[in-house]
Specification:
Blueprint: H1 19-45, E1 48-50, E2 59-61, H2 65-72, H3 75-108, H4 114-126, H5 129-139, H6 146-154, H7 174-201, H8 206-214, H9 219-230, H10 232-247, H11 251-256, H12 270-279, H13 284-308
Antiparallel strand pairs: 1-2
Length: about 325
């Protein structure tokens, strides 16, 4: 009989000890190229004056001049910061004041239709921002918008008529632009926060709620004294996301104001101003400085939120 030969094992192309690093290397390569490098470059750029046409050789060191200019001489940045904080508060606080009881209401009702109703509330969050902004631009039109049409109809109601404006509102005017943007932001994100709070409520042990119900606690008492205290960690998480998102707000005001910020820049946010400084004025150094100032504002707001909610979460 002819003896069978054992097949020789081929030597692997990659040594076994290096294989895990090779397999995860694409992530680090992409992160380094599109994440870490832009981050480091923006830090360097904030201390330089740079003409992109001249390439890297056109970078000139100016130290903290970009930061000094942004903080002391850029009047439009101060206005944009005010608009950003205004919209963040007016659209952000009502989101959570509505989402909390709404999540509790969804948890207690609708039965087998709960998931469908929750999905309907979540739908605005996954809808294209451009589509939402275009629809709301039509809704807030002065002459043909449904909002002004609704106000006109309610003016005929004896009880509500005195509360309605006497004529059609021009939402592009400075006094109304921020209200329009805040309404769009509120409508888009209230469903997202509702889903967050609903998921947290569903993790609360039913024994606690059933025991409180047996002891005679009303749904309102159960919500205030059991559900709310146990939702503190989720409240901290949701408010933090709202702070980060609202302070970086760009798409909604950009589309609603046609990219200009509106009359007297009433709807221009800090992110819009940073975009204008970089890509319209060509001052990438100052734009990078504004970006890092905005980062400090976001970090500071998050720290304050942690002191208020995180310490008790």
């Amino acid at each position: 009989m002819q003896a069978t030969k054992n097949p020789t094992r081929r030597k692997p192309l990659i040594p076994a000890r290096w294989a895990p690093y090779v397999f995860i290397s694409p992530f680090f390569i992409l992160f380094g190229a599109f994440g870490l490098f832009p981050l480091v470059f923006s830090v360097l750029l904030s201390f330089h004056q740079w003409d992109p046409v001249a390439g890297v050789a056109g970078m000139h060191w100016v130290g903290f001049d970009n930061f000094v200019y942004a903080l002391t001489r850029d009047d439009w940045l101060r206005k944009a910061m005010f608009n950003t904080l205004w919209i963040a508060l007016v659209s952000g606080i009502p989101q959570h004041l509505v989402a909390l009881p709404l999540a509790w209401f969804l948890h207690r009702g609708f039965g087998r239709f709960r998931n469908a109703v929750t999905g309907a509330y979540f739908l605005p969050f996954i809808t294209s921002t451009v589509a939402i902004s275009l629809v709301f631009s039509s809704l807030f039109s002065k002459d043909f918008g449904l909002v002004n049409a609704a106000f006109a109809s309610l003016r005929a109601v004896p009880v509500l008529g005195w509360l309605m404006p006497g004529q059609s509102i021009d939402w592009s005017q400075p006094g109304y632009t921020k209200w329009m943007i805040s309404a769009v932001v509120f409508w888009r994100y209230v469903g997202w926060n509702t889903v967050l709070y609903l998921s947290a409520i569903q993790t609360i042990p039913t024994d606690l709620l059933e025991a409180a119900q047996i002891d005679g606690a009303s749904p309102r008492q159960r919500f205030l004294h059991i559900v709310l205290p146990l939702l503190k960690p989720m409240m901290f998480f949701a408010v933090t996301l709202s702070l980060i998102g609202n302070l970086q707000l760009f798409e909604e005001p950009f589309i609603l104001t046609g990219g200009t910020g509106g009359i007297d820049q009433a709807g221009k946010t800090a992110a819009m101003h940073m975009y204008a400084v970089a890509f319209m004025d060509g001052d990438f150094g100052t734009a990078s400085a504004i970006a890092w100032l905005l980062f400090v504002l976001i970090a500071g707001s998050t720290w304050i939120n942690k002191r208020l909610l995180g310490a008790r979460a």
